[in-house]
């Protein structure tokens, strides 16, 4: 059996476990939020340490967040947005149904 098939079978089994889809979605969200902050920070020409100082956080906390390792609270997102001169927009929109 090839490594690709082994991986595909393992992935399928794991994704069928209870809570797997929710955990995958949480990881995707954490990654996307981290990428957005990293892109804004780099656009400002700042290091993680500089952002951490302005946002009243630690550099390791910024690094973990940018790597998708944590999902922040809304107050933390608001602090990061303010530090980066960005507007935090949180909204719920209906999902489009697949037809």
From TrEMBL:
Which CDD domains does the protein's record reference?
A: HTH_XRE
- Pfam families the record matches: HTH_31
Q: Which SMART domains match?
A: HTH_XRE
Q: Which SUPFAM superfamilies match?
A: lambda repressor-like DNA-binding domains
Q: Which InterPro entries match?
A: Cro/C1-type_HTH (IPR001387), Lambda_DNA-bd_dom_sf (IPR010982)
Q: Which residues form the HTH cro/C1-type domain?
A: 37-91
Q: Superkingdom of the source? A: Bacteria
User: What protein is this chain from?
Assistant: Helix-turn-helix domain-containing protein
């Amino acid at each position: 059996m090839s490594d690709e098939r082994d991986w595909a079978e393992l992935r399928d089994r794991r994704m069928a476990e209870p809570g797997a889809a929710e955990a995958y979605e949480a990881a995707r969200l954490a990654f996307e939020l981290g990428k957005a902050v990293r892109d804004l920070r780099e656009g400002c020409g700042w290091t993680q340490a500089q952002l951490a100082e302005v946002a009243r956080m630690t550099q390791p906390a910024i690094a973990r967040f940018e790597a998708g390792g944590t999902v922040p609270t809304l107050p933390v997102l608001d602090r990061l947005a303010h530090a980066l001169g960005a507007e935090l927009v949180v909204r719920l929109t209906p999902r489009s149904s697949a037809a």
